[in-house]
Amino acid sequence: MTTQADQEKIIVEAFINGQNVKSLSQLAKENPTNPSEIVGYFPVTTREQAVEAIEAAAGAFKTWKQTSVDERIMMMRKAIEKIRAAENEIVHLLSREHGKPLYDAHGEIYVSLMWMEFACNEVTSALQEEIQTHENGKTILSYDPIGVVAAISPWNYPIALSTIKIAPALLAGNTIVLKPSPFAPLAAAKVAEIIASEFPAGVINVVHGDADVGVELTTNPHVTKIAFTGGTATAKHIIRAASETIKDMTLELGGNDAAIFLASFDVHDERAMRRIVISNFLTTGQICMIAKRVYVHRSIYDEFVEKYIEAANRWIRIGDPFDSNTTVGPVNNLKQKNVVLGLVEDAQKRGATVIPLGQILDQKLFDQGYYLQPTLVLGCDVHDPIVVEEQFGPTVPILPFDDEEQVIQLHNESIYGLTSSVWGKEEDAISVARQLEAGTTMINTAAVQGLDVRFPFGGFKQSGIGREYGTEGIRTYTEKHVINVPKTLDLPYIPE
Ligand code: NAD
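^ thats the input. predicted complex w/ nicotinamide-adenine-dinucleotide below
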């Protein structure tokens, strides 16, 4: 149920050098379940303010990099406690601005805190200097901070995909300027400010806006690393923008993740059927690692589709994010709703069959918000746009395949390679998994259900560069610095 506090308008400002900075203009953030309701306001940060934020971060870096890892961990742990204490408030705000159901918003905080805790536990060993004495003398390898990190996050998991950057960047001794997405800026800004309250001024700065501010963050010479999560098309602009000053980059981009069901998969396994439905429609399908195309071995295809529809109709309950019965909320924004609608209509025009899934709990709300009834799309060609493009919304095509070689080829011919999943007898599934070009492949589960923050996460090909999570997700915020003390100082092949 919504509370009085939920009705209040939230106002966030840019946060620069430890202070809120007033802006000349503000934008309204609407509630996707009722676009006429304003959840809050966020600023349009000017480029001059973005420069101030970057300079504040550059100034703070000089002293922050000298702090001990233990000090940084202590501050981060206090921030974690504060987020935990404010969880309900944050979750309500996130649900209102984003449209994700409360359980899903809690899930986002759960994953964020799990990662922040992991980063605190892991950072000391991840940054441990390595000293080797060998036949040629002595070598010291240290993991030094990079400097000012520009962290640019998307709207689908605004808190998790901001904290995934903030925690390791700060723990490794960097300072940061965060820019959340204008489609979900409020809760991420609140969480960043909670974290910032435990750190010295200038260590965390937050700016708002879209490409204009983004361009400053990606071209300013004081920024030495870009940590970006978002679309592949945006990443191409960023790579070009950053090329002038050759910045270090971690890019977590789009995906078109396949779920492959082998002949050995048991279609009568109801828990597995529920898992694949969740892998398709959690967060209304708006997750980079959601299963966006499903391939099923022809020998089990008909029965699979029948059982899938039953499972989907059981799990998918479309409604108010504040209703505990709701499993699927609205699409976050009108632009994304139209992208998904366009792909479904295109598939229909090409002769596909579109089957609506789940039950609509509140028709009036459904009609007023950015809702879309989830759909299953059958009878597509393997190269139809709905199959090869990232839909990022509540629709999924299911296609039959005849042999493993064919499905592996279909998987690997994608420009993307973020995650994938293989379902069936474990050894068969692992054998197929080994042949897939994807950063993570899950067996008998998919999407966030198979995510493990202890291991590196990222994509092959146009799904990204570099990895977040795991030890690598910490070291990615460092430069490797080698100090060599050679025993033999003069090289034998250089003449006297
Ligand atoms: P987007 O690329 O439109 O926006 C992402 C961020 O980039 C936003 O903060 C936006 O304001 C900013 N931006 C836009 N133009 C910019 C520019 N020229 N310079 C700098 N910044 C700029 O993506 P989105 O619609 O917010 O998110 C959806 C996409 O993100 C999907 O493709 C999804 O797969 C991807 N994603 C990937 C992962 C992953 O881990 N690989 C996770 C979540 C989402």
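The two ends are 84 Å apart (CA to CA).
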